[in-house]
Design brief:
alpha+beta, 30% helix, globular, 5 strands, 150 residues, five-stranded mixed sheet
Length: 150
């Protein structure tokens, strides 16, 4: 069964994110994000199996001045016990349906270079690699450094 995530799913989402994606967010961060989702712009769906959350997907609108509005897959994880059962495909299809219902004609996915199994999965679901890129990150402080003058 695929259903919208609720705040009480936070611990399970956290466990799946750590197990399958290697992310280490704080539980409170996951709780806060679930509580404040902008449902017009994003959704988190849960795949339930045997009465527990066996996987999740997070999809969000991606809007640019230069590109058509599309969906951005923010996270997809399925418990190792259920991988190969079709839950990942069901979650991704549900995320795609959400995107279409919100006026988006495409979905983009970023997947780490070493995640070859995930790449095979996305290809099997009809996704095509379009480019390789380097991801840059900068930690920002609250001092206003780099702010735009008005």
């Amino acid at each position: 069964m695929i259903r919208p995530a609720i705040v009480s799913d936070a611990e399970r989402i956290l466990a799946l994110a750590k197990q399958e994606l290697g992310y280490e967010p704080e539980l409170q961060q996951v709780i806060d994000r679930l509580a404040s989702l902008d449902l017009d712009r994003e959704c988190v769906l849960i795949a339930e199996e045997d009465g527990r959350a066996a996987g999740f997907v997070h999809v969000s609108a991606y809007e640019s001045l230069l590109l058509p509005k599309c969906a951005n897959l923010m996270g997809l994880a399925v418990d190792a016990t259920y991988q190969g059962s079709g839950l990942g495909s069901q979650l991704l299809s549900a995320a795609e349906a959400w995107a279409v219902s919100h006026g988006m004609a495409s979905m983009r996915v970023n997947s780490g270079e070493s995640r070859e199994e995930a790449h095979r999965f996305y290809r099997s679901m009809g996704y095509t690699p379009v480019k390789k890129q380097v991801k840059f990150v900068k930690t920002l402080d609250a001092t206003g450094a780099g702010s735009v003058s008005k």
